[in-house]
Amino acid sequence: MDYAVLLYFDDDASKKINKWTYDLVDLGLDRRYINIGMKPHLTLAEFNQTDLGSTEKLLQEYAAKKSSISLNFSSLGIFPTEQGVLFLNPSVSSDLTIMHQELNELLSDCCSDFSPLYNEENWVAHCTLGLDYNEEQMHQAYVHMRQVFEPLTAKTVSIVLYGCCPYHEMSVYPLNNHDI
Fold first, then answer.
1. pLDDT in tens, the chain (180 residues)
2. For the chain: N or C, fewer Cβ within 10 A?
3. Which 3-state string (H, E, C) describes 41-87?
4. How many CA atoms lie within 13 A of 17 on its CB side?
């Protein structure tokens, strides 16, 4: 996919998530996720895009109207694929579901070829802690996180247009003109 739409979190939550991510690397686990350089986030959509100007305008206008929402990360999860992803799993609230639905509907007017992983019926809301873990590394990461994990509340502060491959932040739109 060429592009993604992400939600960034408040500084306190981001610092806590980054600490957990770096702790996993300090255990000797794969550092690919840190090397990518992404801030802690939750992905709402991935797509190939045909009208960048319209997408940026749409995201800016949408973010200006939307209020921040609270996300309660209450559990850990894994995607047991070859890419081996360990993540924080938020309780899916109606606010998050509505934001996901609204954004994907709005983006469908100017974007194409959406990733099926982020379609409403397949979407698993998550915040990645580490990836590319083999079975042994996943076990080690899980055991460590089980010892240090505590539920975390994060406040969303911005919607982000992100370019993929190479990964790079393109535009950051504060929610409801929230200072970032």
1. 799 999 999 999 999 999 999 999 999 999 999 999 999 999 999 998 768 899 999 999 999 999 999 999 999 999 988 889 999 999 989 999 999 999 999 999 888 888 888 888 889 999 999 999 999 999 999 999 999 999 999 999 999 999 988 889 999 999 996 655
2. C
3. EEEEEEEEECCHHHHHHHHHHHHHHCCCCEEEEEEEEEECCCCCEEE
4. 32
Give the Å distances, CA to CA, from 36 to 67, 76, 163, 164, 169.
29, 21, 12, 10, 11
Residue 54 CB: number of other CB atoms within 10 A? Answer: 14
H or E element at residue 155: strand 152-163
d(CA 139, CA 27): 12
Claim: this prediction has a pTM higher than 0.90: yes
In angstroms, the CA 75 to CA 112 distance is 33
Residues making up the chain, counted from first to last: 180
* Structure tokens belonging to residue 5: 């739409």
Among the listed residues 28, 33, 1, the one whose alpha carbon sits nearest the alpha carbon of residue 17: 33
